[in-house]
Amino acid sequence: xxxxxxxxxxxxxxxxxxxxxxxxxxxxxxxxxxxxxxxxxxxxxxxxxxxxxxxxxxxxxxxxxxxxxxxxxxxxxxxxxxxxxxxxxxxxxxxx
Length: 96
What we know:
By secondary structure, the protein is mostly beta strands. The protein has one domain: Umud Fragment, subunit A, CATH 2.10.109.10. The chain has one helix and seven strands. The chain has a seven-stranded antiparallel beta sheet, with no helix packed on it. A hairpin with a 3-residue loop joins strand 4 and strand 5. The protein is globular and about 30 Å long. The termini are far apart.
């Protein structure tokens, strides 16, 4: 199933802008350094997946102030397919 969502907020700028539409697929697994839509505190969020483990993923914003941290893999609802934003390799070094 396809999801179309409008971004609300600035935590992913300059990768994804406030008000921008994203297209996601619920039938795809999260991709390392890609964007995902997840349930967090009773709402949907769009964040980068910076680490993947069998039972959980690490969700990150455009900078460390907007990281959500580890969440259960079941909380990830979809993988964002468009736009194809990828987190820069330099940003990943923060998490070791």
